């Protein structure tokens, strides 16, 4: 087993495997709490990733759940990884727990499929475009704006790393190519950057535009949607959905399945193919 590079993913996998094992053995929460001296609230926090077991407590749980020796080693390694601090912890004062969780999941993901209705995806944005998105909403101190820009650019590092196998698939509305975030020049530079990324990251990046001529699409009406996949087949795909006032991880299997089906239909039947998408982007650059 390869330990996830992200403490968020390591913590999630540890909690998930403990809960799955308890259910496999049909061990009740009451049995766990009585055998190990935990409260129900404590164990609930462990299974929901709000509490990381101490080394000694984990040992007792692993014995109670009758894990094999190699599994115990894997779970101890996950606990050690979960104790690390990701790069996003330096920005904890700027982002709430859900956003930081997204950063951690991104950092440990094998692949992300993204949909955006009116914006260029965050992992493909230029610094000027990022600043332009932030400025109209509220008056932020310049230092905070700079830190938020820095954090978003940091999220893009995996795509730029030639040794990282991470892949990104992005489906975007043609409206995102026309919305003049920051003005014509900022948008033009952004689209030039997007075209350059598509051309230079052929194996890692796949961008598809839903043209204005599309008459229907299941993603119409959505704002921001991510499907986050992981290297370990034991870890299910997660979804992230975001609107103006609400955002968060979706882990319900049925909801994730429905989002995945809708996304794949849009990608395969509604969005323009890769080469045509690149031509659409270049046409908009010339218009600007």
UniProtKB/TrEMBL annotation:
GO molecular function: DNA binding
HTH cro/C1-type domain: residues covered: 18-72
InterPro entries recorded: Cro/C1-type_HTH, DUF5753, Lambda_DNA-bd_dom_sf
Highest taxon above the source species: Bacteria
PROSITE patterns: HTH_CROC1
Matching SMART domains: HTH_XRE
Protein name: Scr1 family TA system antitoxin-like transcriptional regulator
Originating species: Amycolatopsis mongoliensis
């Amino acid at each position: 087993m390869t330990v996830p590079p992200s403490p968020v993913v390591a913590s999630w996998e540890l909690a998930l495997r403990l809960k799955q094992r308890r259910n496999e053995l049909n061990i009740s929460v009451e049995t766990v709490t009585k055998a190990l001296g935990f409260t129900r609230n404590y164990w609930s926090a462990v299974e929901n990733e709000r509490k990381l077991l101490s080394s000694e407590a984990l040992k007792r749980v692993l014995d109670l759940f009758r894990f094999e020796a190699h599994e115990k080693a894997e779970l101890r390694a996950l606990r050690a990884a979960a104790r690390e601090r990701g790069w996003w912890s330096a920005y904890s004062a700027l982002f709430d727990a859900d956003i930081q969780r997204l950063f951690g999941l991104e950092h440990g993901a094998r692949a992300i499929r993204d949909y955006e209705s009116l914006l260029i995806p965050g992992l493909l944005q230029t610094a000027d475009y990022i600043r332009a998105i932030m400025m109209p909403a509220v008056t932020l101190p310049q230092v905070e704006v700079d830190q938020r820009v820095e954090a978003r650019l940091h999220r893009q590092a995996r795509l730029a790393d030639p040794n990282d196998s991470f892949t990104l698939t992005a489906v975007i509305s043609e409206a995102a190519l026309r919305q003049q975030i920051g003005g014509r020049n900022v948008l033009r530079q952004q689209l030039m950057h997007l075209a350059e990324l598509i051309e230079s990251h052929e194996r890692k990046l796949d961008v598809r535009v839903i043209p204005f001529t599309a008459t229907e699409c299941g993603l119409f009406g959505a704002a921001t949607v991510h499907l986050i996949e992981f290297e370990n087949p034991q870890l299910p795909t997660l979804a992230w959905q975001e609107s103006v006032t609400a955002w968060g991880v979706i882990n319900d299997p049925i909801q994730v399945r429905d989002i995945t089906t809708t996304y794949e239909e849009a990608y395969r039947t509604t969005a323009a193919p890769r080469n045509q998408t690149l031509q659409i982007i270049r046409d908009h650059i010339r218009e600007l």
